[in-house]
Amino acid sequence: MNLQTKIASAASDAADVLGRLGVRPELWTAGDRAVRSPVTGEIIGQVQDTSPERVQATIEAAHAAYLAWRSVPAPRRGELVRLLGEELRAAKADLGRLVTLEAGKIASEAEGEVQEMIDICDYAVGLSRQLFGLTIATERPDHRMMETWHPLGVVGVISAFNFPVAVWSWNAALALACGDAVVWKPSEKTPLTALAVQALFERAAARFPDAPEGLSAVVIGGREVGEALVEHPKVPLVSATGSTAMGRAVAPRLAARFARALLELGGNNAAIVCPSADLDLALRGVAFAAMGTAGQRCTSLRRLFVHESVYDAFVPRLKAAYASVAVGDPREAGTLVGPLIDLAAFEAMQRALAEARKAGGEVTGGDPVAMPGGAVAAYVRPALVEMPGQTEIVRRETFAPILYVMRYRELSEAIDLNNDVPQGLSSSIFTADMREAELFISARGSDCGIANVNIGPSGAEIGGAFGGEKETGGGREAGSDSWKAYMRRATNTMNYGATLPLAQGVKFDI
Ligand code: UN1
User: Fold this and answer.
1) Residues lining ligand 1, judged by CB closer than 6 Å?
2) Which pTM value belongs to this model?
3) Closest residue to atom 7 of ligand 1, CA basis
């Protein structure tokens, strides 16, 4: 008997949703590249890789669009982003459903991701009236100095499967408000959601007469397509989200042509549970951060340092949560942990667990969860691993729901361990002691781009700058002043006098 008759078909569901989202059938039914749903393992689309010539033409068209777009006043540009936000609001349930089908996220997280897109659109609309520079005092009489922010050009966006739509929007909403064009290469694993977002963008653009043709485009394919963006002289900024290995390949090539890199790479995020922590709150914070999104966020919690005085009160409760958390079909209400993206991710998780066991780790969970159609889908119970110390495997990022738990005695020791990994994305501390909290977020505390108190390391909102240090790549996206990465700064000195005094007292009288 066909196993798939036992479960709702992801393929027909995806077809319905893609239709409603306005994606033309030839874009997702006629290509050579099969797209599999991690939910059932079914093929839910056949997309066509963009040919090298077409990639070049798309970048050229985006550049031409930028030349027109940069002259549209910024608040008008914001209006296009507002319309995009409206389309996203209207399509939230459908796009969220497609994220579930293509990336395996549970419904609330999938819709949360679309909400994050809406939020950044709102943010960018406001930003479009706030692209301001400084006015600076000069040493010369009758002079004025100021800085002006100008559009940059074509922004290349390379995104990962785990946030298949939100990451594009963090870049694109700002880039569009800033006067740039965008060419997007989504993950090979999640091209359908990208095509859907592009269709929504086109709906918004159709309602906006000032949007030039080619202002936002999607190019599909593997590494070569990303490389075309990285190498193209008319792409002054590439924003790339993915593994540290990918960043290592991309960054030097951008540097070689003096282009900008905005990198969001690996994370290996920790949390510290202190003696004074509210353990109920910490339990919920740790559970969401470590098991949510099946451990497939860059910000997922992977390392937990628990003070020895609360270890025995806390860790058994956490283990019970691991044993009971609902793993299953992400389309079903009540499921909290959906599938891993593919079987390769499952195998990488099992290899990491074997290595942890060898290093003295005691593993709870981590077993495959049988599902109808389970031969081709990767459902797994999240794993909690009690480790004797921060061994090599703990210091590596495995993109799967594995939480390594360790005891600590002194906070300084826990902070050192928090920082003693190559990655530097996110971190958090659970404590009611303000001295501990402040130390953790101080210059002597966490070395990460994100340091939280009494919430886990994942689930950031868009108002803050998002990104991390060290092997995480140093990029910052979304809020605060991240928009500056998408513009170029000109410093202007204006002389409104009739003489020409030179700076630094230099004399040059001819
Ligand atoms: C990622 O995992 O690539 O902070 C980004 C969070 C989300 C973004 C995660 N807002 O968890």
Assistant:
1) 116, 162-163, 241, 297-299, 458-460
2) 0.96
3) 459
At 25, the amino acid letter reads: P
Q: Average pLDDT of 348-354?
A: 98
Residue type, 41: G
CATH assignment of the domain containing 121:
3.40.605.10
- pLDDT value at residue 393: 98
The one catalytic residue in 42, 113, 264, 477 is 264
3-state secondary structure of 136: strand
Q: Are residues 416 and 369 in the same domain?
A: yes
Asked about 274 being catalytic, the answer comes back as: no
- 273 token code pair: 């549970």
Q: Which two tokens stand for residue 355?
A: 């290595």
Structure tokens at 330: 């992400």
Whether 469 is a known active-site residue: answer: no
CA 276 to chain centre: 32
- Rounded Cα distance, 179 and 170, in Å: 15
- Cα 161 to Cα 185: distance, rounded to the nearest angstrom: 11
DSSP 8-state assignment for residue 390: -
Cβ–Cβ under 8 Å, residues 471 and 424: yes
Same domain (yes/no): 314, 176: no
> What is the domain-level CATH number for residue 426?
3.40.309.10
Structural element, H or E, at residue 87? helix 74-90
Q: Which domain holds residue 258?
A: 8-265+473-489
| Higher-scoring residue by pLDDT: 2, 184 | 184
